[in-house]
Write a structure and sequence with these properties.
The complex is a heterodimer of chains A (564) and B (223).
Chain A (H helix, E strand, L loop, with lengths): L17 H6 L4 H31 L6 H5 L4 H37 L7 H21 L4 H32 L12 H33 L6 H7 L12 H34 L6 H15 L16 H11 L1 H15 L8 H24 L1 H7 L2 H32 L5 H29 L6 H42 L57 H6 L3
Helix pairs in contact in A: 2-4, 2-5, 2-17, 4-5, 4-6, 4-7, 4-9, 4-15, 5-6, 6-7, 7-9, 7-10, 9-10, 9-12, 9-13, 9-15, 10-12, 13-15, 13-16, 15-16, 16-17
Chain B lengths: L5 H13 L30 H28 L12 H25 L3 H31 L8 H29 L9 H28 L2
Helix pairs in contact in B: 2-5, 2-6, 3-4, 3-6, 4-5, 5-6
The chains are: A mainly alpha (564), B mainly alpha (223).
């Protein structure tokens, strides 16, 4: 069944056996890296698109090549936004932390040699590729056709995500190494596992929604028909903005939980990294697992808060507002655990750790504005496009990207056998960190400014002019921050070239989990014929022992020898 | 954690393993066991457990797909635009065919467990034929409806009728493919044994059976 041959860690296809090595490889490490390459390509296109969008909103009269190349219509602008969002949400935020790092690391961290269903894994990867091609292609069609192509691609992505989620869950349940009990699982594995369960439930709903909408558009079925909706509504509730409410329900049922699908693995990665670079166990580890479960569970139930403006049952907003606000509880648990781990730690401020701390900062900043949006009374006062964009990008987009970068800096030696440059990485971090705050914090202000309808006209005029300058500031900051990502690309390319020359030590971060018990880059068979045996929890950094850490696989006798 | 307790903490970590004879924290059985050995289906060995898990998870996903449509069905049912579809009589016959196929599938698995291979093959083939008969019956029933002028695009009720029965038929078609696959596959070199493959397939088949009963009840009672 496993038809894997050599070349697991080849980042780019070279040589004659390209098909067997890269296209038809069922090996989890190859597929994980392929997802990461897919995410890298998508993120580069995605940030360029976002720069175009910002430039257009600041200088609407200037001709922008990509925007004006096609028919210069509002639909075209909307299509750019759709492409930016689809690339980023599906192929970066969903693909990288869960499918990329998860595929590469989950089997390694639980001591397995492969995923439970390798062929299925290959199928889900290629479904994802087809979906990426489809969503990109939908941009080039006229809107009517484009929407159909986009929906079909979303449905294909959902199938791929479902198969992956099934694979991840079965792998975690059934393929753990001897001694790898549930309490000993690294938090990353917990996050991938819980996230897979969540994905299995929500992507089915997206699939059903897409299938029904596609059949409406192509076959003329009547699932989302306006007439049946109108007939079901009391007269006073029917307004122009509230027609496609059933589609909205199905979509937001998926999409709100999708936010947590992107965030859960990031929580896992950050918890893992904060502990490793603090040289301390995760503070209240079991509470963190419970908090992850809580995020998944509540995230599943709050779709309605996107629909406060759609004429829901009057009591529904109250329920959704309470549920959405209660998301703060597990979030506070997670924050408390990160702080508790950091407290009195022997901190190692590597680039990976900087990005982790940056994640925590962004998560707090973005999470706070979420409280405004979760309340239906406040949100109707505060919600305007810019406020939501600022909140959403800070907490989901950028924070998750920081987690992805942290993970990349941390696991790069495991994947490619050498480190990314630390000095370059730190410069990249600080520029990006300052840049994203400059971009998204002013957006919150912009959102509040445009909402100030209660003010007299004279004051509004003053505010409006302030708005224009803030808008320009945001755009300039965007251009600078996006350009600064060249630092990362250089760092990445340099490291890939260097890896042929420099041989990194196998465990450069002195980390405890199983993936570091083997050579870097990880050998093809992971652990060889005899799998590892796990003797202890994932985060044990006892003092009074050489190297200050107790790897999971080290037998107690051997550990005793290392006591100073 | 203050430094003074650190060595004590280390002792605890080491002691956990060297103490109380046989490592109470290690799971009782080997490689792929994990922590939940008690739930392992009978007859499965550790490497085949993943197929049961995978099938169970797949069933949950499929259930979620149909449940979200069922929720939409219940929401839209209250609209005045709703013209219920009368379930064709043939579909009740099809239901009996499908129930019978579940029964023959169970009998086939019993024969397999008893080692009576040829009886197993015959009953397995009968199940496949019954499955194909059900699918053909569904197609005929759809044609009858189309003959009566009930199309997908008529109104929400007819749309739901076709998407429920159609999606179920599509899933059942996958089940028929699985039946044929298990029947024709050479298990001498495969990772899974025939009995595991048969059992996992039977779970799917029975689930499709139960799902059909649910959908039929939904369409009948919810019209």
């Amino acid at each position: 069944m496993v038809t894997y041959d050599d070349g697991a860690n080849a980042p780019q296809p070279t040589g004659p056996s390209f098909l067997a090595r890269c296209v038809f490889s069922t090996h989890h490490k190859t597929i994980g890296l392929q997802y990461l390459w897919l995410a890298l390509a998508s993120v580069l296109v995605g940030v360029v698109l976002s720069t175009l969008l910002r430039m257009h909103s600041s200088w609407p009269d200037t001709a922008i090549p990509f925007l004006n190349g096609f028919e210069n219509t509002p639909e075209r602008y909307a299509a750019v936004r759709l492409l930016h969002g689809s690339l980023m949400v599906f192929f970066v935020l969903t693909a990288a932390p869960q499918l990329g790092f998860g595929n590469y690391l989950l089997p390694l961290q639980i001591g397995a040699s492969e995923m439970a269903f390798p062929t299925l894994n290959l199928v889900s990867f290629w479904l994802t590729v087809v979906s990426l091609v489809g969503m990109t292609a939908s941009f080039f069609y006229v809107p009517e056709t484009g929407i159909n192509v986009w929906l079909a691609s979303a449905a294909i992505f959902a199938v791929g995500a479902l198969l992956s989620a099934l694979n991840f869950t079965a792998t975690t349940i059934d393929l753990r190494a001897e001694g790898m009990t549930l309490p000993r699982l690294p938090i990353t594995v917990w996050a991938w596992f819980l996230n897979s369960i969540l994905s299995m439930l929500i992507f089915s709903v997206l699939l059903a929604g897409c299938a029904a909408l596609l059949s409406d558009r192509l076959l003329g079925s009547q699932f989302f028909s306006v007439s049946s909706f109108l007939a079901a509504q009391p007269q006073n509730l029917v307004s122009q903005g509230s027609l496609p409410v059933l589609w909205q329900r199905l979509f937001w049922y998926f999409a709100q939980a999708e936010v947590y699908v992107a965030m859960l693995p990031c929580f896992g990665i950050i918890t893992h990294l904060v502990s490793t670079f603090s040289r301390k166990p995760v503070w209240k580890e079991r509470l963190v697992v419970l908090a992850l479960c809580g995020v998944g569970l509540i995230g599943f139930c709050v779709w309605g808060y996107h629909m406060f403006a759609t004429g829901l049952n009057p009591y529904a907003p109250l329920v959704f507002a309470v549920l959405a606000s209660s998301l703060g509880v597990p979030a506070v648990f997670l924050l408390a655990s990160w702080m508790g781990t950091l407290w009195g730690a022997r901190l190692q401020l590597t680039t990976a750790m900087l990005f982790s701390i940056g994640f925590i900062s962004l998560f707090i900043a973005g999470g706070l504005s979420g409280i405004f949006l979760a309340r239906h009374d406040l949100s109707s006062a505060a919600v305007s496009e810019d406020f939501v964009i600022g909140h959403f990008h800070l907490v989901m987009g950028v924070a998750a990207t920081f987690a992805i970068l942290a993970a990349l800096f941390f696991w790069f030696p495991k994947m490619f056998g050498c480190r990314l440059s630390e000095p370059l990485g730190k410069v990249h971090f600080w520029v990006t960190f300052a840049g994203v705050y400059l971009i998204f914090m002013p957006m919150h202000w912009l959102g509040l400014l445009t909402q100030s309808r209660l003010l007299p006209d004279a004051q509004r005029a003053v505010l409006a002019s302030a708005g224009a300058s803030i808008r320009t500031l945001v755009t300039v900051a965007t251009i600078c921050t996006v350009s600064a990502q060249i630092l990362f690309v250089i760092n990445f390319a340099q490291a890939l070239m260097r890896r042929k020359i420099v041989k990194e030590e196998d465990n450069p971060w002195r980390a405890t989990t199983l993936e570091w018990s083997v050579a870097s880059p990880a050998p093809e068979s992971n652990f060889g014929a005899a799998g590892p045996i796990v003797y202890r929890g994932a985060y044990e950094f006892p003092e009074g022992i050489a190297n200050d850490f107790a790897p999971q696989h080290l037998a107690p006798e051997l550990l005793a020898q290392k006591v100073r | 954690m203050p430094g003074s307790t650190a060595t004590h903490e280390l002792d605890l970590i080491i002691e956990k393993k060297t103490g109380d004879g046989g490592g109470g924290e290690l799971p009782p059985t080997g490689r792929n066991g994990g922590g939940d050995d008690g739930k392992r289906p009978k007859g499965g060995n550790p490497t085949s457990k993943r197929y049961y898990t995978g099938m169970a998870l797949g069933i949950v996903s499929i259930l979620m797909f149909f449940m979200s449509l069922a929720a939409a069905f219940l929401v839209l049912r209250s609209s005045s635009h709703w013209v219920p579809v009368r379930i064709p009589a043939l579909m009740w016959v099809n239901t009996l065919v499908l129930l019978a196929s579940s029964a023959t599938l169970e009998l086939a698995r019993q024969r397999l467990a008893q080692g009576r291979l040829s009886a197993y093959r015959n009953l397995w083939a009968v199940t496949t034929v019954l499955g194909v008969a059900f699918l053909s019956g569904q197609i005929i029933a759809w044609r009858q409806l189309v003959g009566e002028g009930i199309y997908l695009a008529n109104n929400p009720a007819s749309s739901f009728f076709y998407i429920f029965t159609g999606a179920h038929a599509l899933h059942l078609f996958g089940g028929v493919a699985a039946l044929i696959f298990v029947a024709t596959r050479n298990f001498s070199q495969a990772q899974v044994t025939r009995s595991v493959a048969a059992e996992v397939t039977s779970y799917y088949w029975h689930f499709m059976d139960a799902l059909w009963l649910f959908l039929l009840a939904l369409l009948y009672l919810g019209k």
